[in-house]
Amino acid sequence: MGLPYSECSWEDGALLGKKFQHCIDGFTNRNSSKTVPSKDCKVLKQRPRFVALKNQPSYIGDENLQLRDYQLDGLNWLAHSWCRYTSSHEGH
């Protein structure tokens, strides 16, 4: 854990289960979750048209935790990149 990719190695599954069963359980739960999109999810294949956020979304912060202008710009950039399929290495 915590190693850069160049220093990672393959480990025996039984050893991992002894030390990191909570991580394995977390992965299994996320993989079977109904709230986390699966790889077959339609929105991951057909992304919507980008619409810029002019104000902070309600799901981020509250009246005491407001995004700064540059943070809202960054959020818009991330959303724009995702809508244009430039946010990943999927080659779309």
TrEMBL record:
GO terms for biological process: nucleosome organization. GO terms for molecular function: ATP binding; ATP hydrolysis activity; ATP-dependent chromatin remodeler activity; chromatin binding; DNA binding; histone binding. InterPro entries: Chromo-like_dom_sf, SNF2-like_sf. Keywords: ATP-binding, Nucleotide-binding, Nucleus. SUPFAM superfamilies: Chromo domain-like. One of its GO terms (cellular component) is nucleus. PANTHER family: CHROMODOMAIN-HELICASE-DNA-BINDING PROTEIN 2, CHROMODOMAIN-HELICASE-DNA-BINDING PROTEIN 3-RELATED-RELATED. This is Uncharacterized protein.
